Amino acid sequence: MSTNGELYLSAFVTVLVVMDPLGNIPIFLALTRNQTPAARNRSALVGSAVAAGVIVSFAVVGRQLLDLLGISFEALQVAGGLLLLIIALELLRGDSSALDETEGDAGIALVPLGTPLLAGPGAIAATMVYIGEADGPSGAVVVVAALLSVIIIVFLALRFSGLIARVIRDSGIVLLSRIVGLLAAAIAVQLIANAIQVWVDEGVT
């Protein structure tokens, strides 16, 4: 029991830090700046659900799927970085047409919010590592429970981000979107650079 408790706590803290719910609030506000409060709440729910689905799926069959397709984790990291870079450039240009949410819960709630911002390479890798360290099915259940706990916290952070939006108003969100775009671009470049560094050190596999 204590082993599972330690596994839960370790997985919970690691994934929580990687997914960074507070740090994603400015990005979420920037991406949903043209949405109504109700649409923003739906985006928070759908984005969190997509992130949970993606991470759990990779935790269960991710390594086998990547091996089957002959895709390295670094290639997945570069793909996520490039996708995030495109979104960052749109934020920097103030081009909201590509980021607008449709009336249904699609668009940015799926990409880039659900993945790669929430369910990014870091969160996927961390979960896969903990699943590998789990002792049998009970350990895997503990890791999934830790992940779902983090997802609930992420959802609550995004769900109540509207309070921040009402304080900083539209002009503040526009300014925030430019700043977030720069930071998102830096994150994207770092993801790609990390993968390239691994390729340089260990070769492309």
Q: Structural class of the helix and strand makeup? A: mainly alpha
Strand/helix succession: HHHHHHHH
Proportion of strand residues: under 5%
Distance between the termini: 39 Å
In round numbers, the mean pLDDT is: 81
What gyration radius follows from the Cα positions, in whole Å?
Answer: 17 Å
Low-pLDDT ranges: 98-105
Number of helices: 8
Shape descriptor reads globular
Major sheet attributes: none
Helical percent range? over 70%
How many domain regions? 1
The number of distinct β-strands equals 0
Architecture blueprint of SSEs:
Blueprint: H1 2-19, H2 21-31, H3 37-69, H4 73-93, H5 110-118, H6 121-133, H7 136-159, H8 162-202
Helix pairs in contact: 1-6, 1-7, 2-7, 2-8, 3-5, 3-6, 3-7, 4-5, 4-8, 6-7
